[in-house]
């Protein structure tokens, strides 16, 4: 088993129509407005950006995100990631009850040297750190959808 390889899936039930959620998720440069752990998104060109994230644990993850799929009809946004993380991430937004379901899938290999050195003993903490980040993202987006302003 490669202890630096991760697969994640998160499901966010959101109180807004799929088109609204999709449009917000498609604007990655706005993520820091509602997702506290997404510290910076700096555009490099129309389909690529440099992203810095930090959750509870005291380290930054920096990676280049390159758009590989943008399909509003299917509700799919997908990126390729390289840097501290190599792999891909995908949002799939579908109707759900009176709102939307945003499904986040991610498959990555960690390349940050510190995290690779701590891969075996740190794995449960790294997974918990990711879970906390995703929980905060869901809460932040829900608050942003409700008020159109930055979540606390």
Jot down its keywords.
alpha+beta, Alpha-D-Glucose-1,6-Bisphosphate, Chain A, domain 4, 152 residues, 4 helices, 7-stranded antiparallel beta sheet, 7 strands
What do you see in this structure?
The chain has 152 residues and is of the alpha+beta class. It has a single domain (5-147), classed as Alpha-D-Glucose-1,6-Bisphosphate, Chain A, domain 4 (2-Layer Sandwich). Helix content is 31%, strand content 44%. The chain contains four helices and seven strands, in the order βααββββββαα. It has helices spanning 18-26, 31-34, 113-117, 119-147; strands at 5-14, 38-45, 48-53, 61-71, 76-83, 85-96, 99-110. Strands 1-7-6-5-4-3-2 form a seven-stranded antiparallel β-sheet. It is globular and about 45 Å long. The mean pLDDT is 95.
Topology:
Blueprint: E1 5-14, H1 18-26, H2 31-34, E2 38-45, E3 48-53, E4 61-71, E5 76-83, E6 85-96, E7 99-110, H3 113-117, H4 119-147
Antiparallel strand pairs: 1-7, 2-3, 3-4, 4-5, 5-6, 6-7
